[in-house]
Amino acid sequence: MNIGQLLELATHRLAAGPAARREAEILLGHALEVKRSFLYANPAMDVPRRRQAQFERLLRRRMQGTPIAYLTGTRSFWSLDLRITPAVLIPRPETELLVEKALELIPTDSHQRLADLGTGSGAIALALARERPHCEIHATDCSLEALQVAGDNARRHQLEQVQFHHGWWTTPLSGRFDLIVSNPPYIAQTDPHLQQGDCRFEPRLALSPGADGLSALRQIAAEARELLVEGGWLLVEHGYDQGEAVRSILDAAAYSDIATYRDLAGIERICVGRKRPL
After folding, report:
1. Are the C-beta atoms of residues 201 and 88 closer than 8 Å to each other?
2. Burial state string for 121-157 with b = 16 or more CB within 10 A and e = fewer than 16
3. What's the whole-model pTM score?
4. Residue 179 CB partners (closer than 8 Å, separation 6+)
5. CA 214, 118, 128 angle in degrees (round to 5)?
6. Comparing C-alpha atoms, which of 56, 46, 64, 66 is closest to residue 24?
7. What is the 3-state secondary structure of the chain?
8. Chain centroid offset of residue 137 CA
9. Domains of the chain by range and CATH?
């Protein structure tokens, strides 16, 4: 069979998904080790049976729900092509808003100390390192497997100035920081989203802290305050319906200049606060 025929059949089989054609192209490109533009330019090219078999295996796993990022082992975030494994949360486009808002608070030529709590694949820390190369950046995670992925991504992008630490939130860190960011688990353990889509395959610890989904955010707000310099900033991502609760958490933890930013879908996604004197 040729490229065009395989894509048509795969698109039909993936029709239950909202982006069937795109997913078929990504998987066939991965099986053939070519870019999607190659597929567009060569629809009549015959595909070797070995590659067809590999594509079929990928297609079956995708039909069973396995996320595209886990099948291809990669996901683009900011300006980075990251290695992704089932040990880490798959970076979402809306998390780029967290990077964007952090960069607005960090001067271009800054030598500030920054921290990323619960770094996972390293996406946020590495995006900040790419844009603010003179900053000293520390990233923590409780998962050694996740830190291995993050470290590999740092080496692949020559961003080895990021220092990775094993432990919960701020526990492995010392000294003072000018800015701390985090995309922590924030989905309540009873939320049906945990049983839908990619969430079914991602590390539960990276998705939900249990209970109401706010326990990690409360802990981070309290711990980060102890490490921030006077006037330092904390930025956190949160759930679609948690904006008001997170603002209250930051206020109770003695932050000022509290603000919330919406993602491209118009959903409250990021809350920021500045350490104020007690």
Report:
1. no
2. bbbbbbbbbbbbeebbbbbbbebeebbebbeebbeeb
3. 0.91
4. 102, 105, 106, 112, 114, 115, 228, 232, 233, 234, 235
5. 115
6. 56
7. CEHHHHHHHHHHHCCCCCCHHHHHHHHHHHHHCCCHHHHHHCCCCECCHHHHHHHHHHHHHHHCCCCHHHHHCEEEECCEEEECCCCCCCCCHHHHHHHHHHHHCCCCCCCCEEEEECCCCCHHHHHHHHHCCCCEEEEEECCHHHHHHHHHHHHHCCCCCCEEEECCCCCCCCCCEEEEEECCCCCCCCCHHHHCHHHHCCCHHHHCCCCCCCHHHHHHHHHHHHHEEEEEEEEEECCCCCHHHHHHHHHHCCEEEEEEEECCCCCEEEEEEEECCC
8. 17
9. 3-64 (1.10.8.10), 75-275 (3.40.50.150)
The residues of the chain scoring below 70 in pLDDT are: 16-18
Beta carbons within 8 Å of 176's beta carbon, 6+ residues apart: 113, 227, 228, 229, 232
- 10/26 Cα distance (integer angstroms): 11
Burial of 79 (0-12, 13-18, 19+ CB in 10 A): exposed
Q: Do residues 129 and 161 make contact, with C-beta atoms less than 8 angstroms apart? A: yes
What length is written for the chain? Answer: 278
Query: What type of residue sits at position 111?
Result: H
* Residue 263 identity: D
**pLDDT tens track for 89-134:** 999 999 999 999 999 999 999 999 999 999 999 999 999 999 999 9
